[in-house]
Amino acid sequence: MKICVDRDKCQDHGQCVIAAPDIFRFGEDGTLLYESHVDESLRDSAEEAADVCPEQAITIMDE
Ligand code: SF4
């Protein structure tokens, strides 16, 4: 599946990093980095990250 973060909405809160550390992390400069193509086995944590994002910035798409 494909993950997309709307950079205009994202405020680098980091809830997604806590919910799905296999997909989201912070770079050395504090900006959010993420895997844009992830294995189906990570769907639950991806959906959890999308749910907890306070800006609703995360979109999950099937490929
Ligand atoms: S939880 Fe949402 S707003 Fe916060 S860093 Fe993740 S994508 Fe950005």
Automatic annotation (TrEMBL):
Transmembrane segments: none annotated. SUPFAM superfamilies: 4Fe-4S ferredoxins. InterPro entries: 3Fe4S_ferredoxin, Fe-S_cluster_ET. It holds the Pfam family Fer4_15. Keywords: Electron transport, Iron, Iron-sulfur, Metal-binding, Transport. Gene3D superfamilies: 3.30.70.20. The keyword Secreted does not apply. Ferredoxins are iron-sulfur proteins that transfer electrons in a wide variety of metabolic reactions. This is Ferredoxin. It comes from Litchfieldella rifensis. The lineage of its organism: Bacteria, Pseudomonadati, Pseudomonadota, Gammaproteobacteria, Oceanospirillales.
